[in-house]
Amino acid sequence: DISNESKELKRNDQAYLLHPWGSLSENTNDEPMIIESANGVYVTDSDRNQYLDAIGGMWCMTLGYGNEDLALTMQEQAVRMPYYTPFGSMSNIPAVQLAKKLAALAPGDLNIVHYTNSGSTAVDSAIRFCHYYFNATGKESKKIILSRKDAYHGSTYLGASLSGKAWDRTCFQYMDTLVHHLSSPHSYRRPPHIAEENFCNYLLNEMEEAIQQLGADNIACFIAEPILASGGVIVPPNGYHQRAQELMKRHNILFVSDEVVTGFGRLGHFFSSNIHFGLDPDIIITAKGLTSGYAPLGAIILSEHLAREIKETHLKNPVFTNGYTYSGHPIACAVALKNIELMEKMALCEHVRSIGPYFIERLQELEKYPIVGDIRGHHLMACIEFRASNAYSPIPTLEDIAIAQAVDTHCQRLGLLVRPYESLCILSPPLIINEQQIDSMINILQ
Ligand code: PLP
């Protein structure tokens, strides 16, 4: 029967699987939740409980579950031609078509696409490209990467080194000589002596001092999520992005915008760097919503001016020795193309632009509860930060974290999946969510 089958699955999960961010400790008594089927914004577990998925899988299920057009596209491509090597001069039809489409959607002269398997491998590739560019143009000393505390840039060793979430930085030997972490632009947890209106200046002064200390000749790039996602939906203060970009341009430091979460409609546009934040980055990184989570795929979109400069140097070995067996995988590229076609047909970005403010407004109703410290977000990317007391703390306390965990457990019982992280409850529902579903999410949270 269902209950025995489900128990058996959970036993095997515990016996044979180490999950991402999973624990091998004997002390965890967390029972695995096995998701068996899904439709629209709802998922069903192996015990036949249904939940509204306010996490959107992992920020990625933008078109929602059970989309037959996406599934059929994958099937058709698998039958026609499931795979061929992308290396060197070999290519495939969906990869070419998708590259042309991404170039059309990306801002400015970002017209050259390099595929990867995921966000992490895209981050790694973007940094390798920055080093390749500076090596090629005779500035070999430019190697350091500026990143930020609270950033999340993935789980390769380099991605993890760029990430700045304190809790994750245990048990590993990070590449800290290559990476310099600036302060998090986290207004809610800013140092208490800094007034909110001075916070942007404080961050920019620190950035300028860091460049001076490290030496612009040693710095390759600044990698930044326009809104820090997993670090806690941290929206930098007004003016931060443009001033940071101006500083980087002045010092010939490349600006790499990690839009793995903020791209593909979550903020109401295919890319948010230019539209919401006035940026014209040298490289944009994308993944997740690119395929609406139906297949793993990432990409970096490079500025033509960088490519042109590299071409003009007439390198002896012009090869960018970076890539993966599954770069530009035909099934993943085909589903990404179909995803974009459907997003355009459904006017999904317009839908997010109209429903996003409603979502944030409804969420802000929760500010009245004393355990709620902060509510922040942008369109369909939001989080609630819990606090056990009003006392200032630069990091969440154990009591703050316990509240988030209790909220998570209770929501789950009531049929809502939220994502607890430290003292946060992160919300990133599928973009197809409607007002009524938002209302039921808020009711459960309430
Ligand atoms: N960059 C950002 C901003 C992310 O949020 C993530 C994942 O959450 C990544 C990179 C890594 O992507 P992936 O998990 O596909 O490797």
TrEMBL record:
The keyword Transferase applies. Keywords: Aminotransferase, Pyridoxal phosphate, Transferase. It comes from Microbulbifer echini. Its cofactor is pyridoxal 5'-phosphate. Pfam families: Aminotran_3. This is Aminotransferase. InterPro entries: Aminotrans_3, Aminotrans_3_PPA_site, PyrdxlP-dep_Trfase, PyrdxlP-dep_Trfase_major, PyrdxlP-dep_Trfase_small. GO terms for molecular function: transaminase activity. Belongs to the class-III pyridoxal-phosphate-dependent aminotransferase family. The keyword Nucleotide-binding does not apply.
